[in-house]
Queue: 2 jobs
Job 1
Amino acid sequence: MSDLQTRLKKFIKKDSNASLVAGGISGALSRTVVSPFERAKILLQLQGPGSNQAYRGMFPTIAKMYADEGWRGLFRGNTLNCLRIFPYSAVQYAVFEKVKAVILARKPGQDLLFWERLLAGLVGGIASVVTTYPLDLVRARITIKTASLSKLNKGKTVRPPGVVETLKEVYRTEGGFTALYRGMVPTTLGVAPYVAINFALYEVIRDRMNSSTSDYSNPLWKLSAGAFSSCVGGILIYPLDLLRKRYQVANMAGGELGFQYRSVTHALTSIFREEGFLGAYKGLSANLYKIVPSMAISWVCYDTLKDAIRKW
C-alpha cells in the first residue's frame, strides 16, 4: 500500500470523517429508494384549501405523476435531491456524533442521557439545514413547476426547469441572496426537532437491543427501530414540515399559489383555521411512506458502513 493510500485510509477511518462518508452514502441511497413518495408528498403539501384539487391521496398522486410524466416523473428531481441529501445527511450524522463526543468528554465513564442525544440531534439538524437549504428550496420549486408545466401541456413531455436556471430566477426576481434562504426558519423549526427525536429515539432503542440478552442481530430489528423512531418524529413535527414547503414556493408566479404568511405563527393559525386540523397534516401519509422506509434503510446503511470502515 502506497503512502498516499495509507494516509487516505487513516483520514477516512477517523470517526468524524467516517460519519461524513457513511452518512452521505446512506442518505443518498435511502432517498433514491423513496423518491416517488417524496415528490408526491410535496405536490400534496402545496395544494391549498378547496375541493377542486388535482392530487388526492399518496398512491393516486403517484399514479397521476406516472400518467402525466411517465416513469421519469416518479424520479423527477432525484438527482438534485441526492446532490442535496449527500452533504445534508453527511453533515447531520457527523455533527451529531461530534456533539455526542464533546458531551461524553465532559463526563468520562458515563452514558449519554436522552436529552443529551436530543441536543446532539438538534445541533446536527440545524447544521444540515444551513449547509444545504438553497438546494432544498430549488427542489421544491422544480417539483411544482414541472407538475404545472405538465398540466398546461396536457401531459406532454416538457423540459423541466434546471437547477442553475431556478437559482438565477429566485436570485434575480425575489430579492437576491437572501431569497435563496427564504423559509429557512420554519424549515429549521421542522427539521431540527425531527432529527433530534429520530436520532435520539433510534439510538436508545438500538442500545437497549445491543445490551439485551435476547438476540437482536437480525438487521430487521434495526430496520424496525429506524422505522419506529422516524414515524414518531414525523408525526409530531409534520405541520412544520408542511409549512416549510409552503414558505419555499410562496413567491412563485407572484404568489398565485395563495400561500402568503406574515410569520410562522400566522401561517400555522391560518392553516388550522382555513384548512382544519387535517389540513395541517395534508400529505402526511405520503410523508410517512417516504421517511419511515428511508430512515430505516439509512440507519442500517449508516451503522453497517461505519462498522465496515472501522474494520477496514
Job 2
Amino acid sequence: MGAAVTVDAHHHVWDLSVRDQDWITGPELQPLRRNFTMADLEPEAREVGVDRTVLVQTVTVAEETPEFLALADETDLVAGVVGWTDLTAPGVADALARLRELPGGPYLRGIRHQVQGEPDPEWLLRADVRRGLAAVAEAGLVYDLVVLPHQLPACVRTAAALPHLTFVLDHLGKPPIASGVLEPWASHVRSLGALPNTVCKLSGMVTEAGWRDWSQADLRPYADTVLEAFGPERLMYGSDWPVCTLAATYGEVSRAAGALTVDLGDDERALIFEATAARVYRL
C-alpha cells in the first residue's frame, strides 16, 4: 500500500441506549441501527496501523460533544474531537470556552454542523452563521464542512471571507460517485481547493459509490480530482467508520485509499495518512 495509515481523521461512535441517531432511517441504513463503540473500532484500527483518530460529531445535540471529549480523555486512540455547538447562538465564544473546561476539553479540535441537512443552500452565508464561524476561528479551532455538491459554492464564498479559519471538507463534498458524474462537483471542489485555508478528507467515498459493486476504478476520478485540487499537504485520510460498513469493512476502506494513492511518493503518502491530519487538528 505504500506509506502506512497511522491517523484516521474521521470516524464516529454511538450508543443507541444514550440517544437515537435520528438520521438512521429507511431499510438501507438499518445495519447501522446498533451500538458502535471504541471497543469495536480499536482492534480494526490497530490492525491497519492506526494509532490516532479524530472522533467526529454525528447529531445536532449539545450533550454529544461533552461525551466525546470525556471519551477522548479515557482512550489512547482518540487524539482529537470535532464537536458541535450552535453557531447561530449569540454566545458561541462562551460555549466553546465552556467545552474546553470540561473533562477532555483540550481534545476539542474543531466544530461541525450538519449543513447537508439544511434546506437553504446558502446557510453558511447567513450573518449569524458567519458570526459563529468567526468565533470558531478566534478559538483556534477548525471547521468541518459536511455538505452536498450544490452547497459547495457557499463553502467557497465562506472560506474566502474567513481566511483565518481552516475549513476541512468532509467526504470530498459527497460527489455522485455511483452515477460517475464529475461536473459541476469537480469545478466547485477546484474552486474550494484554490483557497489556502481549505483541506479535504479522503473519506466517505465507498458510500457515495454503489454499495454492493463499487470498485477502485469508480473512486479514482474523484480521488484524483481532490488530489489535484488540494495536493497531499492538504489532503487527509478518514475511514468514516462505521458508516463505511454499509459498503466496505474498515480494512477495505484503508486498502482502497492506499491503492488510490499508490503512485505517489512515500513522503506524499505520509502527508495524506498522517501528517496533514496531525498538523490541521494539532494531534
